[in-house]
Amino acid sequence: MTSLGLIGAGMIANIHADAIKRVGSKIVAVHDPRMSRAEEFGMKHNCEVLETVDSLLARDDIDGVIVAVPNNMHAELAIASLKAGKHVLLEKPMAMNLQQCDEIISARDKFGKVLQMGFVCRYSPAALRAKQIIESGELGEVLHVQATLLRQRGIPGLGGWFTTKAKSGGGCLIDIGVHLIDLAMSITNKKSPARVFGKCSQAFTSQTYAYEEMWSTPIEGGTFDVEDRVRALLTDASGTTFQFDVAWATHLPENTLKDGLLIEGTEGALVVDLWADEMILGFSENGKPMQETITCKVTEAWDDAFQGEHRAFASAMATNNLDSNAGTGEDGRLVQHVVESIYSSADLGQEVKI
Ligand SMILES: NC(=O)c1ccc[n+]([C@@H]2O[C@H](COP(=O)([O-])OP(=O)(O)OC[C@H]3O[C@@H](n4cnc5c(N)ncnc54)[C@H](O)[C@@H]3O)[C@@H](O)[C@H]2O)c1
Prior knowledge:
Layout: E1 3-7, H1 11-22, E2 26-31, H2 35-45, E3 48-49, H3 53-57, E4 64-67, H4 74-83, E5 87-91, H5 98-111, E6 115-118, H6 125-135, E7 142-150, H7 165-168, H8 172-188, E8 193-201, E9 229-236, E10 241-247, E11 260-265, E12 268-273, E13 278-285, E14 288-295, H9 301-319, H10 329-348, E15 352-353
Parallel strand pairs: 1-2, 1-4, 2-3, 4-5, 5-6, 7-10
Antiparallel strand pairs: 7-11, 8-9, 8-15, 9-10, 11-12, 12-13, 13-14
């Protein structure tokens, strides 16, 4: 059985903890500077609460850690964990910038431990099925991917660290857009982004936004200096195009567009709702447009995905090798590069080379 420590005891740490227990790994200890949170987590998940990160990293009975803290702390804590000889499952985004990504990758190589990126959408049952279909060649050559993640009222912890650029590195793009960018590029195996044009803006301000429950709670009078919507068009070196539509908040009626991908190939097209148990395959038979519904086994898609991620992490720790579907440090860096390029395109108002 693999034994884990949690660095950070916030919202996502609790989701990890549930998945860790379901896949049969053990939670040994947690650290969070907000002791009340750590203690609540310790009670709920039956683990020790440690007052410092160093005391957690010094424990011989911990094989690996989950780094689940605000984005500006990712690099420092991932590197400290690798240096202490722990395997690391690092929440997305990888870091605040490319230099930090490089430092994390160097630490992984220097200390010879597993580094898995928390790109959990790769493990949604629908994404796994879609990947099989693409790899089977049924769609032919992939021409275009439309990737969508549009929330109605989903600004996480409005006024807190998520909406404060110095702590998050950006808004919805670096928060949820990273999932889409990673999934679209990994599922199609198109990992040579060449050019991108992006537009980022803030349509909802704290004055006009009616807060509904979202990760953590809103902070009255807090900072909101990041984008809440992004549109980007990216071209891969192979010629495949990607369109990313991401927003934390919109006026779109609920469920107008599902979280997911529309993948168009030369032989077929696939419409994938990331959290559903079926997807639609479009193809042509004797020149006529046809369609077929393809099902996949789902218990609760979001939980299934986190369990998949933790099964992969447990197996990687046992073998010192990531499974082929897992997000690597290089994948995390590539996504960071695309994110930075979209931000610079938006600043310049023109297409940029990646
Ligand atoms: N995979 C996903 O789908 C997903 C979803 C949500 C968040 N995330 C990522 O997970 C991370 C945490 O997000 P969250 O929603 O849990 O945020 P959160 O604000 O709910 O929790 C973060 C916790 O980290 C703690 N913390 C701050 N500094 C720390 C330190 N030095 N050591 C230990 N703990 C520290 C905070 O006190 C807080 O309790 C972020 O990087 C976020 O992008 C991923």
